[in-house]
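The protein record minuted underneath.
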Amino acid sequence: MDHIFPRADGVLIGGVKLDGDWRRELDPAISADIIRRTSTIESGIAEAKVRGEFPGLRPGRAQVRLELEQRPSPSGPAVIHNYGHGSVGYTLSWGCAEEVAALAREFV
C-alpha cells in the first residue's frame, strides 16, 4: 500500500506493513523501496531531497477505540481513549482529533 500525502512542509510518503516486525531502526532497503514504488506514481519523488525518515510502530485493532471513559470515583479523572489506528493513523488524524476535542468539551 503506497501513499503520498502533500503537506505544507513537504510530502510524506510510505507504505509498508510488516506483521510482527517491531524494529525501531530504519532499514535502508525499505526506504529505497518506498521511494522506488511511490516514484512510479509521482516521478518527482525520485529526485526529491529526503528531509527526514522515521520508522513507525502503528498497532492496529479491528476497530479504532475512540471514547470517553469516566473513572469510578465521582471526582476521578476521565480518560479519552484514541488508539488502534494501525497504518491509517495519518489519514484519520484530523477527524479523530476533532472527535477527541468534542468529547473533552462535553465532559468539561
Notes: The mean pLDDT is 88. Helices lie at 28-39, 89-107.
